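User: I'm putting together a small comparison set for a docking exercise, and I want a reference complex before I start. The sequence is below, and the ligand is manganese (II) ion. Could you produce the 3D structure with the ligand included, as structure tokens?
Assistant: Of course. I'll restate your input first, then give the structure tokens for the complex.
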Amino acid sequence: MSVLADLIASLDSGELKIVDLTQPLGPDTPVIGLPPIFASSPGVSMDVISRYDDKGPGWYWNTIRMGEHTGTHFDAPVHWITGKDFPDNRCDTIPVRRFVGPACVIDVTADVAKNEDFLLMPDHMTAWEKQHGPIPRGAWVLLRTGWSKRTDPAKFLNVKTDGPHSPGFHRSTSELLAKDRDVLGVGVETVGTDAGQAGTFDPPFPNHSTMHGNGKFGLASLCNLEQLPATGAVVIAAPLKIVDGSGSPLRVLAISPA
Ligand code: MN
């Protein structure tokens, strides 16, 4: 398999690079807020088990606690009621081949700068395809919005009196991507794969409903998408193998032309 030897040689020569699409994960990681009638997800807490001290003189380790959907994380189909009955729909049962696919990066940074509630419409998607070619089956579609540059958690979550405001997908675009293009899933820079106002949409949270209702995945809180070309990179996004897990924090890596 010379392709694997070539891969390593290209990484060593700098012809290819590994891009980290992952945000730091810690107690400061912002967590999605839900209306108070629903249960909320805890943020990250870390407690030292020992740190070269009486509790463990030669070693350092922590206990971590968080919701499955914290920070840069993976949404499995079972996360949503529409995806609950698919076979192999949870973190420990999804075939691992489905964690790896070509990246299609759709840059809407300029649109989002003008409208923080921007929704990707089918027209935007087909315009992208005219320029870059069709979105291939099994692709990770990454929505580049610049949102990860919002390092202040309040600006990142962007909650106003009428709820959160952040960009996402129109339902019709999610349907095209899931059914017609048969993608692996979508990835976003925001806290979740639906727009901030999507709780008010019909149906609520249409991207979750559509993607998971078609057995597809989600990646939230990505960063560094500006380091990827529109096409030509490969994304590896493998959640922890949590038994019956609905999702998990993960390290998302892209192999990209330098
Ligand atoms: Mn999630």
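The helical segments are 2-13, 109-114, 122-132, 153-157, 171-180, 206-213. The chain has six helices and 15 strands.
User: Thanks, that's exactly what I needed.
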